[in-house]
């Protein structure tokens, strides 16, 4: 197989402006989460102590939902009955 040198990429002003705008937006979201988290942090700790860690499992579930949403994965429940597993097979 023939190999070639990497293609040159050009960075344009529009690209840098778009990067800066996305970066500012992400920083704003991060600040909002930190502000919301600092106010709700004490209540979450109280729930963990009283609820016996039920909040940790809900956090893990919401984390997986967030990851699935980010990557575009939409899990579908698997069918458990025989007709749905095999369709309409005729013997």
TrEMBL record:
Q: What keywords were assigned to this record?
A: Cell cycle, Cell division, Coiled coil, Mitosis, Nucleus, Ubl conjugation pathway
Q: Name one GO biological process term.
A: cell division
Can you tell me which family this protein belongs to?
Belongs to the CDC26 family.
Starting at the broadest rank, the lineage of the source organism is: Eukaryota, Metazoa, Chordata, Craniata, Vertebrata
What subcellular compartments does it reside in? Nucleus
Residue ranges of the region described as Disordered = 70-91
Pathway annotation: Protein modification; protein ubiquitination
Please provide an example of a Pfam family that matches this protein in its UniProt record. ANAPC_CDC26
Any one GO CC term of the record = anaphase-promoting complex
Protein name (Swiss-Prot/TrEMBL): Anaphase-promoting complex subunit CDC26
Extract the PANTHER family matched here.
ANAPHASE-PROMOTING COMPLEX SUBUNIT CDC26 (PTHR28579)
């Amino acid at each position: 197989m023939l190999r070639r040198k990497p293609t040159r990429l050009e960075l344009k002003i529009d690209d840098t402006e778009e990067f800066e705008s996305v970066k500012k937006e992400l920083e704003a979201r991060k600040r909002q989460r930190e502000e919301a988290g600092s106010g709700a942090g004490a209540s979450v700790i109280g729930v963990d102590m009283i609820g016996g860690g039920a909040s940790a499992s809900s956090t893990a579930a919401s984390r997986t939902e967030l990851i699935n949403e980010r990557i575009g994965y939409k899990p579908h429940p698997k069918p458990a009955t025989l007709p749905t597993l095999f369709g309409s097979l005729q013997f």
